[in-house]
Amino acid sequence: MPLFDTVLQEKPAIVLELGYAFTKLGFAGEPHPRSIIPSDLLDHKAKSNGQTTPNKKLFDYANETDLYDQLVEFLKIIFFKYVLVSPKERKIVIVESVLCPTQIRENLAKALFCHFDVSSIFYVPIHLVVLATLAVDTALVVDIGYKEAVVVPVYSGVQALFAWEAQPLAAEAVHERIKGDLILNGADDQLLTDYIIEDIKVRTCFVTTVDRARKWRNDEKFQPCPEVDYPIKGDETIKIPGIIRETAFEVLFPKDNDHLNLANIILNSILKCPKDMRKALAENIVLIGGTTMVLGLAARLKAELLALLQCDQYKDKLFLKTVKFHKPPSKANFTGWLGGSIYGATDLVLSKSIAREAYSKNQQLPDFTNYDETRSHGRV
């Protein structure tokens, strides 16, 4: 994917990664996003009712009209408050999951083309473009965001969508665990906003080791880490017990009959792939998403995977001896955006984008997982 003079001479494309909790935004060719902002909107109804936190999530919508209006309002904030450029005649790169609902993709395209009059849109799949940050073409990409953990194998630059796995083992589950335990310990529910819970998670919690987690689950002699005081309002503080700090992330590693923890869905995804792909995928695991940045997660996940590989469920099927993790050149929470930035700075943004003129003739978006198919849908 060479850089062409025609790409560099034009205005750089705007790169957007719209997540459920946070949105990353910036320009193509840059090494990091200009801003990372909450994917929140002002709830005018709540504000008129006098609520103290009149915010709602971008993707919490009642119907398609509501979704379109919220996307337009949020994009206005992006373009005119953070990016500070007019979107008219600009190229837009959208970093998204291939599992993104069609309703969201179509309404986003409609908002960008019909309301903001952008010149073209280039959708890029996040699980594929992260490999550009590592200069590899084969990896098992594990994206742990806010709502769910999604595992997609990529082999020789092709996403193996037949082997994807997903479970709601992500930040939302951790937040609910922390909030529930703090309320049981006497904390005021009104003070525990989403921002506070997120901050408590980032500043005080970590992933414990396999041995300590086993002792805690089996009610063996277990001495948790020290509790800490968290300043919550003025001089007021709440105590974060050590047991919460150390076990909040255990919701990502449930021990139940369904075998659906993070380690299981990773191995299940590898197991769905042909035998000649499995070793390469196991030795090229990439963790992305804000939840993967927590202290101790990678080490715990590796220990869980190695332990499972010795179990009968996988031992006689996978025949794997080790697993290896890549370390991307950026923070895990915007590695996907960086991949979009790299793609947006190449000639692909010219040859693979959907042009406004083509969209005006046929507002059906093509399947962007198949580049051969997209050539017949009026792309630039």
Description:
The protein has helices at residues 5-9, 44-48, 64-83, 102-115, 126-129, 171-184, 194-204, 210-217, 242-247, 262-272, 275-282, 297-308, 312-318, 335-344, 348-351, 356-361, 371-374, and strands spanning 14-18, 22-27, 35-38, 40-42, 55-57, 91-96, 120-125, 139-144, 149-155, 158-159, 165-167, 228-233, 236-240, 285-288, 354-355. The longest helix is centred in the first third of the chain and has 20 residues, at 64-83. Helix 3 crosses helix 4 (102-115) and helix 6 (171-184) packs across helix 7 (194-204). Strand 9 (149-155) and strand 10 (158-159) form a beta hairpin. With 380 residues, the chain is an alpha+beta fold. Strands 3-2-1-6-7-15 form a six-stranded mixed β-sheet, sandwiched between helices. Strands 8, 9, 10, 11 and 14 form a five-stranded mixed β-sheet that branches. The chain has a two-stranded antiparallel ribbon with strand order 4-5. Residues 1-9 and 369-380 have low confidence and may be disordered. It is globular, with a radius of gyration of 22 Å.
